[in-house]
Amino acid sequence: MSGDLAQYAKHFQEGTRVRVGVPLAGGGSFQEWGVVGSLERDLLELDLSRDFLPQQASLRLGGIIDLGLLDPEGARHCRAMVAGEFENHRLLLRLIESVTVFEPREFFRQDVYLPLDYRLPPRQIGEEIRERWRQRLWAREFAAQSRDPEEAGELDALREEIRGSLEGKKAAPPAAANISGGGVRLNICERLRPGMLIELSIQLPDSQRVLEMVGEVVQVRALPDRTGYSTALRYRFIDEADRDRLIGYISARQLSQLAQQAPRWQGAQRSEPAAGSRRLRLAVGVAILAALVGFQLRAIVVKRERGEKHEIARIFEKAIADYLRERR
After folding, report:
1. How far apart, in whole angstroms, are the C-alpha atoms of residue 16 and residue 69?
2. What letter does residue 24 receive in the DSSP assignment?
3. How far is CA 147 from the centre of its chain?
4. Could you tell me if 114 and 233 lie in one domain?
5. Among residues 71, 89, 61, which one has the least CA distance to residue 18?
6. What CA–CA distance (Å, rounded) separates 324 from 327?
7. 51-65, 217-231, 238-252, 279-293: least confidently modelled range
8. How far apart are CA 52 and CA 302, in angstroms?
9. Are 100 and 76 in contact (CB under 8 A)?
């Protein structure tokens, strides 16, 4: 913790400009800017640039917010928890993560409510956990294959057993989580130790595949109401095609939300010049579209090497078509 405090003091000096990702009730975030008013250990006070936030802005106590910084060493990223009511431009936050170098895949971050199952492995031995993960990937691929008329009946019975297990994972209760291409944060009842490895299964909408991965606990914070722990995991073992599916889903959601929120942004920024507002929205849209194309090309290459159909291309094409239709 002392190392984090030193980082906070270095990067969040009074007057520093900070990008604030304000969560929206319908998902996604609204990008706002603020200036550091004060910092006391991990308690940060920001002076935001506007008196009123969009109607859908969700700054509930205990909510998680993304912060961005730009210094001579490059772009930085940190996460914080809302620690006070937003009033008179002022927002009180408690910093909860280390200040890290911004990674492009972390831009694709989304609050979701999806079937998600996590399990503690029998033993915390990395090689064993990795082998268990590989076996789950094999089982997933085996279950997706059609029955060969010449195969033994035992194999067909095994395939049906695996399919039943996967259906159980798909039916897992939905859970609120914040996911990205690099990791996930979720609230759980038990307190885990940093460094522990956790098995994860995530079911994306309109997908027949259960994403199988292993996360490493990087941070644990008690929730304000003491009902559980906000637990951050980074992906330790993940198939790159699964990462691309995850990023494809997140970015498609963000693109859809961008199209839906454009009129609200315009209403929230009536005091700004209309041309500037349009340029800002256009720049954001172009940036996201460019990133989407890049990830789509990478995903198609991976899937072609594996002989898979271009499922991710369909997701992107639909999202981009929806976005363009909303812009008309």
Report:
1. 8
2. B
3. 37
4. yes
5. 71
6. 5
7. 279-293
8. 45
9. yes
Chain mean position to CA 291:
15
Report CA torsion sign: 264, 269, 271, 274.
Answer: negative
Q: What is the 3-state secondary structure (H, E, C) of 52-72?
A: CCCCCECCCCCCEEEEEEEEC
Task: Say if residue 253 is in the same domain as residue 311.
Answer: yes
> Which CATH number covers residue 88?
2.30.110.70
Neighbouring-strand partners of residue 220: 231
User: H or E stretch including 200?
Assistant: strand 197-203
Domain match, 229 and 313 both: no
H or E stretch covering 20: strand 17-23
Token reading at 299: 């995903």
Q: Which residues pair with 235 in a beta bridge?
A: 215
Do 287 and 199 share a domain, yes or no? no
Domain boundary among 80, 102, 124: 102
Task: Round to whole Å and give the CA distance between 312 and 299.
Answer: 7
- Give the integer Cα–Cα distance in Å for 238 and 182: 10
Tokens of 110: 């989304």
In terms of domains, do 136 and 190 share one?
A: yes
Count the neighbouring beta carbons within 10 Å of the beta carbon of residue 170.
Answer: 14
134 and 215 inside one domain: yes
- CA dist 268 → 46, 57, 264 (Å): 20, 11, 6
Tokens of 55: 């109607």
Q: Which residue type, as a one-letter code, is found at position 118?
A: Y
Return phi, psi of residue 194, to 5°: -55, 135
Q: Could you report the per-residue pLDDT of 99-114, keeping only the tens digit for each?
A: 887 655 555 677 888 8
Q: At what angle do helices 274-305 and 240-268 cross, to 10 degrees?
A: 170
Domain containing 212 equals 110-238
Same domain for 57 and 90, yes or no, is yes
The number of distinct structural domains making up the chain is: 3
Of the pLDDT bands very low, low, confident and very high (cuts 50, 70, 90), residue 199 is very high
- How far lies 120's CA from each of 117, 146, 174, 192, in Å? 10, 32, 19, 10
Q: Choose between 219 and 314: higher pLDDT.
A: 219
